[in-house]
Amino acid sequence: MNYPNQKRVETFSIEINGKSCRAISGETVVDVARREGIEIPTLCHDTRLEPAGACRVCLVEVEGQRRLQPGCAWKVQPEMKVTTESDRIEKHRTILYSMYMADHQLDETGLPVATGNGNQLRELCKTIDPLPLEPVKAPRAGRPEDVNPYIEFNPELCILCARCTRYCDEVEAVNAITLSNRGGETTIATAGNRGLLDTTCELCGGCIATCPTGALIEKKAPVNLVTLETEVTRSTCNFCGVGCQLDLHTHNDRVVKITSPEPGETLNDGNLCVKGRFAYDFIHHEDRITTPLVRGADGELHPATWEEALTAVASGLNAVKEKHGADSLGFISSSRCTGEENYLMQKLSRAVFGTNNVHQCAAT
Ligand code: SF4
Ligand code: SF4
Ligand code: FES
């Protein structure tokens, strides 16, 4: 049955580099190419955002089109023929990357500087023999006075791709940052150039995560994160019950940074909130209780093994049940626990102790 507002999904074939590829109406050339394993470089593209066609890195040849077209924004049509590698495209990339390099902070090797948040432009520039262009001294302003604790903006690394501002608008719906000024002075600014703490910013850090050049970086992460060897461990955020997946970056068994898995990979689609991304100091805080404590006959808490602690809990609960009945017990779980842990809590309450007195704080 067709419903009035139902969109018809059409599938058809297009050709990319002579290869026949299945495409779905509404997809872009980059969508189809990536599914087919055909690499098209991108910088301003983010699957969570409306295409902006801002960086021009993804230009491809489309048969019948006089100009190269942005693969990230160009919608597929039946029988379309696309070329992603040619002398013309290579020449375009050489000129484009060289212009970016002329307007970018370079390191001693002449490449865009590496940052603790990566720099995809640096990797692209390694693929060309750059043209000898005069460096541009664009008067882009930063916000050196911004005292927010988490986010730093370096205008020398910004390519004005607007991923950060579009993310802030389209995903966070916050609009704390915006493209401001004109020409060479164009920069990423806040209203009145205030610090982020004086704007609507929620300090989610999504702008850092989406920035392809490291122009936005995390203030908290060690400055040497570029060279620091880190191990990455996938985990579940324990600040609430949503279950966002995050990647813990550790060095010498200490968490030095937290990032989100790539968009599309896990349920949080590359997003995290301020707590999930930045509130990791508690992990190594000296006040943190790292071993069970059991109150002794002296009334004081003493360190114990898990076995000792669980035995004390079980005998205490059993003693109450024997004396006052199962319904004198109540079990309260937390929205910070996973669904599986909450399930186990109600199982413990109902199946082990025989009471339905079980609750969870998110239900109130
Ligand atoms: S931290 Fe989040 S809310 Fe703040 S500017 Fe960045 S994307 Fe916007
Ligand atoms: S700060 Fe990063 S994401 Fe924002 S416009 Fe500049 S390069 Fe793009
Ligand atoms: S990725 Fe297509 S124009 Fe930037």
Structure report:
The mean pLDDT is 93. Among the domains are: 11-85, Ubiquitin-like (UB roll) (Roll); 228-287, N-terminal domain of TfIIb (Single Sheet); 293-363, Rossmann fold. The chain contains eight helices and 16 strands. The strands form six sheets. It has a five-stranded mixed β-sheet with strand order 2-1-5-3-4, covered by helices on one side. A three-stranded antiparallel β-sheet has the order 10-11-12. A two-stranded antiparallel ribbon has the order 6-9. A hairpin with a 6-residue loop joins strand 7 and strand 8 (187-189). The protein is elongated and about 85 Å long. It is α+β, with helices and mostly antiparallel strands and 364 residues long. Helices cover 22% and strands 18% of the residues. It has helices at residues 29-35, 87-102, 120-125, 163-170, 206-210, 274-278, 306-324, 339-352; strands at residues 11-16, 19-24, 59-62, 69-70, 81-83, 151-153, 178-180, 187-189, 216-218, 231-236, 245-251, 254-259, 293-295, 301-303, 331-333, 358-360. The structure holds iron/sulfur cluster (2 copies) and FE2/S2 (inorganic) cluster. The site of one iron/sulfur cluster (SF4) has 13 residues, from helix 4.
Ligands, deduplicated? iron/sulfur cluster, FE2/S2 (inorganic) cluster
| End-to-end distance | 41 Å
Mean pLDDT over all positions: 93
**Unreliable stretches:** none
Rounded to an integer in angstroms, the radius of gyration calculated over CA atoms is 27 Å
Question: How many extended strands?
Answer: 16
Task: Output the CATH topology of the domain at 11-85.
Answer: Ubiquitin-like (UB roll)
CATH architecture of the domain at 11-85: Roll
